[in-house]
Amino acid sequence: MNRLFLLLSLSLVGLCLQGQTSTSITISTTAQGAQFQVDGTIYYSGVTFVWPEGSTHYVVFITDAPTAAQTSTLVQTSVDGSTQYAFSGWEDNNKLVQPANAPIQVITANPAITSFTAQVSVSYRLRVSYFTSANPANPSSPPVCGAPGAIPPGQSSPGVVYVGGQCYWSSVALFVPANNAETLNAYPYPGYAFRGWTINGSNPTPFLTALTVNTPMTIAPIFVPAKRVSFLTEPLGLQVQVDNTAVPTRTLADVPNCPNNEALPVVAQLGFPPLCFGDFCRCATGLSFRDEGARDKRDAE
Questions:
Q1: What is the mean pLDDT of the chain?
Q2: Per the domain annotation, does 6 fall within a domain?
């Protein structure tokens, strides 16, 4: 009896299979390298399947586990951490998927559905690497600084930089959309000078620089120690020409603070005294100067 039942069951299965037709479907993403899963198997590029019509299959765009630093849960980070893929939705050849933004989809094989594509945007990691930084910034926390205003109390930095309009005062890693144009600007604090940017180890560029992010990148602002140079005249308060520019000098000498509101509007860090009229930060490039009718001038070498 059991043998007869088994033979009858196998016969029925054979008849069902003879009546089935197969259908082809291509599963892929718009960005090469983004991972997706089909029936439990992970793929990194488009793949074509031939499934029996009416069969059920599970397709998943793989996303990172939620963290406090991640604003969106529909993001996938590459294994090496250099690239992020932001998922916006699935799209079939007829544009009928709903809800499209659900990363998990159930597909019933059918000749009318020939493609299923994850819409993905790519961002690359951009490291801002300070050569000198006592307290690197926490990448998960928004930076607090200005141009060139104060940094968080109790912290120190040779200067602040702007990347794409956002201020940073120490090392940080951020993700920038692919092919995005980013502008760079640097503000050295008194006691430091700026020598340029290095981009992926390249030769230094000017303090105002633009770059297009089309790969993971590391940029480094080069701040170097600088010596304070004070110009005084006798009598006090006359002008001198520094770097081909006429500048005033202070009206009182040997005072702890700048006299008569003669401070330059620059925030000083690291206990460095404020800059007064006639004060400069000098690095190896030096300063050129001459008097403007003054009988004496002094360079604090």
A1: 81
A2: no
